């Protein structure tokens, strides 16, 4: 019997047992689709992280108040108020003679308050920065402009995020209008293009104002929550970090490294950490999906063993009319292989569909989530499913091939 005829015979047998065949294939479908979805999610998560970093800008370092070890964030991240960074620190870091590789520096504070224009009011966030912020972060202005170095010294001006402008003003031009933040008037001088989520914060739902105004009039503080600096080249980042660390230790009268009251973060290190985390999670989840493939393979073996028992008389009849043990073995092995390959193909289609739906949902939520399907993952998933069929179908096939034709014909 030719291969094509054997495949037709196998398919005929599977169609004759639709319910059992469906349940047999289901385990493989779940395992394969799980592998495809998880690998796609891992690639999408990494693209999201890299996209977030690219939106922030390149070659950035961040100085945060509070000491942290290499395995965790500074205490300020957990909401603990630490006041060890002051505007003088940012001014010192901006000294071009001492730090020739630093292109721009900005202090940073942040708060939340209602934004009011006439009878319109929305809850949003305000961020106090210096005029150099557009040189540090990739800020794109839709209309108007960002505030300059003169306005930075104490002008009540504001640059709106896209959502704030849209919710407060709708289709009206906000340039020149006066909004109130904590009862303080601010003139709108510009608004940003839609940016979406950057560094896991909605950049469209915030208002940029001068740092001095945010500190003195809105928050009543003298310290900084963070200092951001842009370095001219990634190759100069390690040297610049050490120079900044030495400066801050001098300014804060710190002798030992263990007594440092600040933390310097390199954006490239953050990329490595986040990529490592997403890769580890993807590997772990892929292993869980692989377990589903193994469970599906065991299900195939059990079903095939039952099938061998049910078809004992058929096997005996085939061997009695001249079928070799090899032909019987190959028939059952081919049946297991067809089941797993069909399950693999259906699983790939289902997995691609689910991954695409997740990517669409993430994009709808405002995240730059890439829909990534690796050809390697598809080939691997189908190959593994076929291998599962061969491995778990081999024992039932061999058992069928070893049946004695006389005993098989007597089987009830």
Helical content class: 40-55%
- Compute the number of helices: 12
What strand order characterises the main sheet?
A: 2-3-10-5-7-6
Biggest beta sheet attributes? 6 strands, mixed, barrel
* Class inferred from helices and paired strands: alpha+beta
Oligomer: single chain
| Overall average pLDDT | 82
- Uncertain spans: none
H/E order of the elements? HHEHEEHEEHEEEEEHEHEHHHHH
Distance between the termini: 27 Å
Shape by Cα distribution? elongated
Rounded to the nearest angstrom, the radius of gyration is 32 Å
What amount of the residues lies in strands? 15-25%
Strands, total number: 12
Furnish the topology, listing elements before pairings.
Blueprint lengths: L2 H14 L1 H39 L3 E6 L21 H7 L8 E16 L2 E10 L3 H4 L4 E4 L12 E4 L1 H8 L8 E4 L2 E9 L4 E2 L2 E2 L3 E5 H9 L6 E6 L5 H15 L10 E5 H44 L1 H9 L4 H40 L10 H27 L3 H6 L2
Parallel strand pairs: 3-10, 5-7
Antiparallel strand pairs: 1-11, 1-12, 2-3, 2-6, 2-11, 4-7, 5-10, 6-7, 8-9
Helix pairs in contact: 1-10, 2-8, 2-10, 2-11, 8-10, 8-11, 10-11
